[in-house]
Write a structure and sequence with these properties.
Number of domains: 1
Largest sheet: 3 strands, antiparallel
Shape: globular
Low-confidence stretches: none
Helix content: 25-40%
Number of strands: 5
Strand content: 15-25%
Radius of gyration: 14 Å
Order of helices and strands: HEHEEEEH
């Protein structure tokens, strides 16, 4: 994907997201309810041997599935999300306290929703 294509894709995602995203921090092998999330996660993981990714917490490289501890998935907070975004947390950072993971997620998601922050978790979930 060229630089121009990445920027255009980000602009589209930003427009679709508006001011809110629904986020999920999941195990890489966890089955997901929404097909858009399942497809995004699978695509991100399948690309690892050819495209190294950076951990959102430590910036360490993840080059194979075994190096991924968590996936941070996000979709625009609309009834039928048109797009999904995926970031990874390496296996070494997977045991970080939730507050550290939330800070890393907030920083990673700033590109999609500038100035955004994570809302408190719903205790019923």
């Amino acid at each position: 994907m060229s630089r121009h294509e990445r920027r255009a894709s980000l602009a589209r995602y930003r427009q679709e997201a508006g001011n809110a995203l629904t986020t999920y921090l999941v195990d890489p092998d966890q089955p997901l309810d929404l097909p858009i999330l399942q497809n995004a996660a699978r695509s991100w993981l399948d690309a690892l041997p050819h495209r190294m990714r950076s951990c959102i917490a430590c910036s360490g490289l993840m080059w194979e599935r075994q190096r991924v501890g968590w996936l941070l998935l996000s979709v625009p907070a609309v009834p039928k999300p048109p797009a999904a975004s995926v970031c990874g947390v390496c296996i070494e950072c997977a045991d970080l306290p939730l507050q550290a993971l939330e800070q890393a997620a907030t920083t990673a998601l700033q590109t999609a929703v500038p100035g955004g922050r994570l809302a408190p978790m719903d205790p019923r979930r």
